[in-house]
Amino acid sequence: MKNLISVVGPTGIGKTRLAIDLAKHFDTEIVSCDSRQFFKEMKIGTASPSEEELAEASHHFIGNLSVEEYYSIGQYEEDALKKLNELFVNHETVILVGGSMMYEKAVIEGLNDLPEANESHQKKLQEILEIEGVEKLQEMLKELDPEYFAVVDFHNHRRLLRAIDVIWQTHTKYSDLIAVAQDSRDFKVIRIGIEAPREELYDRINRRVDLMMKSGLLDEAKSLEKFKHLPALNTVGYSELFRYFEGEWELDFAVSEIKKNSRRYAKRQLTWYRKADDIYYLQLGYAQKDFEDLIEYINLQK
């Protein structure tokens, strides 16, 4: 049986470093399930692995798309499984890493077949969006499916439209539909997480945003302003700066909103992972001995 080690945890906790250390130990490659890092134009704002990190271990699905390309979670599931099958030919173990909860789920469990978009539903929801704003859609989804609302990127109106449409069509919660495994996987999944006290995590997130700004996030966002209507850019770190460019917000306020929204996203990730009982946790700033214990744990699971 082949093994997929899935490294999970909230944004800014250090998943990239752990994934690289594991890849080096097992002499293997890394598959990313961070849906924001797929886009090559968004390196700074998504904290994509650096050139040095990419050189330490082979990574897949990092900067492989343009923001102008449409890429669904279903396409990712198909592509990721195909890539895993290729990698398992030469490797007993492969590393999966990323904080996009649904994308990890797509790989390790599979997504249930969901209905196509219903045109009249979409039209009705679009009207609600235009007249009452994204807040109304957030309210509707929260009422229809609080579990999915707790983890969805609720600033992304397309995700909200899709979930509400599917709920209306199927009379079933979206979170229940996507929880049904489509088919079994012929590899063993070993989930590893990193955890830290919440204040420490939030402090790391704040400092990381400051570092992104120093590294040129403002220029990166400016170069992408013409694409701000695209789904890929409807995300934390960019949507706030677009409001600054439009003169709606001061720069300091936009940066503080990036920090706040990043912390909120981390909180939703923590809520999601807390429900799982199959994650082996390392503490942030783990020592070599902790890493050795982790390797021992992984070898026992195989």
From TrEMBL:
Family in the record: Belongs to the IPP transferase family.
Positions annotated to bind ATP: 9-16
Keyword ATP-binding: yes
EC number: 2.5.1.75
Organism: Chryseobacterium gilvum
Presence of the UniProt keyword tRNA processing in the record: yes
Residues where substrate binds: 11-16
Protein name: tRNA dimethylallyltransferase
Keywords linked to the UniProt accession: ATP-binding, Magnesium, Nucleotide-binding, Transferase, tRNA processing
Site positions for Interaction with substrate tRNA: 100
